[in-house]
Amino acid sequence: MKKGFVTETVIAAYCSDCGDQCEGDTGGLVFASVEAASDPESGVPAYGWEIDGDLLTCDNCQGRVDCSERGHAWLDWRTITTKVDGREHAKRVRRCDRCWDREVEVLS
Ligand SMILES: [Zn+2]
Ligand SMILES: [Zn+2]
Question: Residue 62: helix, strand or coil by DSSP?
Answer without folding.
Answer: helix
